[in-house]
Amino acid sequence: MHGFKGERVLMRIHIGEADRYHGKPLYQQIVELLRARHYAGATVHRGIMGFGPSSKLHTDRFLELSSDLPIVIECIETEEKIEAILPELDAMLGGGLITLERARVIMYRADQPPEHRTDSWPIDVAGVRPRGDSGGTG
Questions:
Q1: Which residues contact 72 (CB under 8 A, 6 or more apart)?
Q2: Region of poorest pLDDT, from 51-55, 102-106, 114-118, 129-133
Q3: What is the pTM of this model?
C-alpha cells in the first residue's frame, strides 16, 4: 500500500443499531457500500449510551432500553469521494446525522512484515522535520 500526508475529510454517520436498509443492518450496508466504492476504510463504533432528537435514552444497562444503541460509522477519505457518496447515503438513511470535518492525516500504511517496512513515511506531527533528524525518540 501507500502512505500519504495531507488533508482529508472525516465523515461520521450517526444512526441507531436497529436501523435497517433492504432487510440488513444499515451500518453493514453502509460499510459494504464504502468498500465496494474502494474507500480507504471504515470503522463502526457501537455506543453504550446515547439519545437523539426524540430524547429517548438508549443504554446497554437495562435490557428494555438496549434495543437501539447508538452506532457511529467513521470514514476518512478525500473531499471529492466523500461528496460523491453523500447522495447514496442520503437515500439509505431514514433518520440520523452525518457530520463532516477536515482531518490532517499524518500516515496510512498497510500492515507489512518487518522486512518490507521502511522509514519513508515517518510520523511527523510538527510539520517539516530538519534534515538529518531520524525521527527517533532518544
A1: 12, 13, 14, 44, 45, 47
A2: 129-133
A3: 0.71
